[in-house]
Every structure is written in C-alpha cells, then in structure tokens.
Design brief:
four-stranded antiparallel β-sheet; globular; 25% strand; 8 helices; Rossmann fold; alpha/beta
C-alpha cells in the first residue's frame, strides 16, 4: 500500500477554475508531495472541495495545469476520493467494497480475502453481511473509506470526513487515516476542525476566497501564522 514515486508529486501550476462569472479557484500553485497528511483548511466557500475534485480530474481547470508525477492525468487511476456524504449502494457492506474493485474476478477467493482485509482495517470486519444503508453514520463513513482503499490508491482525498460524526465516530476515522498514512498512502484532507488539523496534519494549506493564503508545516502554521486570515481561523473567529 505504498505510493510509487512516479505518482507523486501532484502539482497545481497557476490553476484557475471558474463557473460562469464566479472564480472558484484563483491562480492556485501548490505541490502535494509524498509523506504525511496535507490538511486543507479555510472557511465555507473557500474552494477546498473543488481543489480535491480538480486533483482527481473531476473538474477541469479553466487555466493552468495539474500533473501527477510530471504527467497530465485527467482521471488518475491511483487516486481515490471520499466525499462528506457518500452514497451507499443497496447491498451489503462487503458487496459495496467488492463493487469498487471493478474487477471481472470479484468472486475469487483472493478478492474475497482482499475485501475482508479492508473491512477489518476500517473496523467493520464483523459487519460485512449487514446492509450498508442500515449502518450508522460513522460506520457508513468507514465503509466509504474501505471502498476507496480497496483499490490500493497512491493518494486518498478526503472531504470533511468527520464533519457530521460524533466524537467517537470522528476518532475512529482519524485512527484509520493515521494508519493508512503510516502505510505510505498520501492523505490530502479538508476540514473545518482546527483540532483535527493539529492532530493529523504534517502540512497545512489554507484557502480563502479561492486563493492560497498560507502553506506551512503544521507546527509553523499553528504556532506562528503569517497571515491575518490564518490567525483568525486558528482563533475561531470568522474569516470573511
């Protein structure tokens, strides 16, 4: 589960994304390299989700270039994304994971073992036969992580994965993120939670009004923020 060096870094070079007359991302330049998690923070509407979607090739830049390992990749096979409110298929938890393998040999013993291993990784090893839509909110989010991880991604993009969860559910998700990060998967994650960013992040990227206002190591960002926007965000003030 380690990302080949050819998959990284992901580089945004002067990327602008517009919708009609609105500019969602404005001249973004950032390098997402291998290593511990990069956490993307900022107020609502800052462009965080669009940044993840663009990296995955789900949104095309209006201007600029996005590359994986120096290559233009419109739909990278080694990337996976989990949105804040993932949709569960009308089947069991195990069948949800098996579907995401997208393999003609999904019924083989090897594939079955792979699905079970991933369910164990996210703490759902005993719930494989349960209908996915009957799982709790926290369990469904862990199942969404399992579906993303089953294809062995190089990079895992997570959009506010704990936003709607109680503390116990959020802690379970954070533990999974820490585990897969230690296994070599690059995690790029958005969050509004400064505590979560402190606990998980090695690098912080802050967006405001579609622009990057600060990039720093987590320790530098939280101890010595350079911008007024970062200082307000850390203090819990409104960033307008």
């Amino acid at each position: 589960m380690r990302a080949p060096v050819t998959d990284l870094p992901i580089e945004f070079e002067n990327v602008t994304i517009s919708s009609g007359t609105a500019t969602i991302l404005d001249r973004i330049t950032v390098r997402l390299g291998a290593g511990l998690p990069t956490i993307v923070v900022g107020p609502n509407g800052a462009g965080k989700t669009t940044l993840l979607r663009a990296a995955m090739g789900l949104v095309r830049p209006s201007l600029g270039r996005i590359s994986w390992g120096g290559r233009d990749v419109l739909a990278p096979e080694r990337g996976a994304i989990v949105f804040q409110r993932p949709t569960m298929l009308r089947r069991t938890a195990a069948a949800n994971v098996r579907y995401w393998l997208r393999s003609p040999n999904r019924g083989t013993r090897e594939q079955t073992m792979r699905v079970q291993d991933i369910l164990e990784l996210v703490g759902l090893g005993q719930l494989g036969d349960r209908p996915a839509r009957r799982l709790s909110g926290g369990e469904q989010q862990r199942l969404a992580l399992a579906r993303a991880l089953v294809r062995n991604p190089a990079v895992l993009f997570l959009d506010e994965p704990t936003a709607s969860l109680d503390p116990a559910g959020a802690r379970a998700i954070e533990e999974i993120i820490a585990t897969v990060s230690r296994r070599g998967i690059k995690v790029v994650m958005t969050t509004h939670d400064t505590g979560e960013a402190r606990r998980l992040g090695a690098e912080i990227v802050m967006l405001h009004q579609g622009r990057i206002v600060e990039i720093a190591s987590a320790s530098t960002f939280f101890q010595a923020p350079r911008t007024a926007e970062a200082r307000k965000f850390i203090a819990g003030d409104l960033v307008l």
